[in-house]
Amino acid sequence: MATPARTPRLSPVLRSEDRVTPLELFFDLVFVLALTQCTALMAEDPTWGGLAKGLLLLGLMWWSWVGYAWLTSVVDPEEGLVRFAMFAAMAALLVVALCLPQAFGDRAVLFACAYGIVRFGQVLLLAAAGRDDPALLRSVGGLAGGTTLGVGLVIVGALVDDEGVRAAIWAFSLLLDMGEPYLFGSEGWKLVPRHFVERHGLIIIIALGESIVAIGVGAEAVDVDAGVVAAAVLGIAVAAALWWLYFDVVALVAERRLSNAAVGREQNEIARDSFSYLHFPMVAGIVLLALGLKKTLEHVEDPLETVPAVATLGGVGLYLLAHVAFRWRNVHRFSAARLLGAMVLAALIPVAVELPALATLGILAALLAALIAYETVHFAELRDKMRHQLAAGD
Questions:
Q1: Distance separating alpha carbons of residues 128 and 143, to the nearest angstrom
Q2: pLDDT tens column, 272-316
Q3: pLDDT at position 391 over 60
Q4: pTM, entire model
């Protein structure tokens, strides 16, 4: 007997499938622009202050995206009015991204108002989805309070003329926003584990894509000679290594851990810590690398300045440290190799400001290749089990 077709509904429909939908991928394309704008902002002002501003704005963008990752793990984004609400959120997020380069200038107020629309859109949709679920509604109530305070501070900061004060207010707003899940508990939230893991894996790919875009942007202002070609190839090698370090085993283990956790508080807290929190330094590290790649392609024969050198090596080091914490949170195992890799990268920063940028990029690629080779050989049996038995669901 044929299954009757579903009739369109206006009210939110709870998610029943674990795949990421085309609309979610479409939504994430706008986030790509936000990442690009953060990189461009730091590239225009490659100072410690410019770096801090770029990372602060990236944090605000990240927490906006995280909200919609949780939302679409509760409701089906392609059913009813949710589809149109997602389009509206995309439009608002696009305005936010367009304002990013001048968020500390003339477009601060427009940035803050559009940011508020993005944030409250998530709250309203979650409230509608939880109308018959008291536990979810309680959690949404806490989220609404935290969002109101956070967005209010962003608007207040936008009205302040002093850039330093504005940055401090926005940083405080982000700190309160990210701390809100601890204050109001996690019992009432809902998620689909496989969807949640896949959504965050895709955002890592999007961030890596931004690093590749940075290679192209950096090469635009120079002649494509042998040095630029070598730098581009090494840049791809570094991006591929970061992909390998995440997707070869880490993503599989994370999915299994989240799926096996008890539904409710345990599962929600793992999702919060491992994905909402610890994926931010991963994405931030990749964005910093993108800044370094852009500067490298612009001057392959010259040493990197201090800030781009820190962004290049420190960004990858931050990415590795986030993996160390990620592994500990999920399986309570310590990754000494990745911690050592991060420490070596930090120690290489004084060397990077003396060597040609191309040489620094070559050293980075070689170090990551050595790390991957070591882990592949040293953990061969465990890796085989994870990649085949866990992937097959045995």
A1: 14
A2: 999 999 999 999 999 999 999 999 998 889 999 999 999 999 999
A3: no
A4: 0.92
Pair of tokens at residue 215? 């290679």
Q: Measure the CA–CA gap between 63 and 148, rounded to whole angstroms.
A: 14
Instruction: Give the pLDDT confidence score for residue 11 in this predicted structure.
Output: 59
Domain limits, the chain = 19-190, 191-394
**How many Å from the N-terminal Cα to the C-terminal Cα in the chain?**
33
Cβ contacts of residue 278 below 8 Å, gap of 6+?
A: 322, 325, 326, 329
Alpha helices in the chain (DSSP H): 22-44, 48-71, 82-99, 108-129, 134-158, 163-183, 193-220, 226-247, 250-260, 265-271, 279-298, 306-309, 315-331, 336-352, 357-378, 380-384, 391-392
Q: Is the dihedral of CA 181, 186, 189, 194 positive or negative?
A: positive
Give the up-direction half-sphere exposure of residue 386: CA atoms within 13 A in the CB hemisphere. Answer: 18
Distance of CA 65 to the CA centre of its chain: 8
- Report whether pLDDT(242) > 60: yes
Q: What span, in angstroms and rounded, lies between the C-alpha atoms of 177 and 312? A: 28
In the prediction, which pLDDT does 38 show? Answer: 92
Q: What angle do CA 303, 306, 311 make, to 5 degrees?
A: 100
> Tens digits of per-residue pLDDT, 46-63?
999 999 999 999 999 999
Q: Kindly tell me the burial class for residue 347, based on how many C-beta atoms sit within 10 Å of its own C-beta (0-12, 13-18, 19 or more).
A: exposed
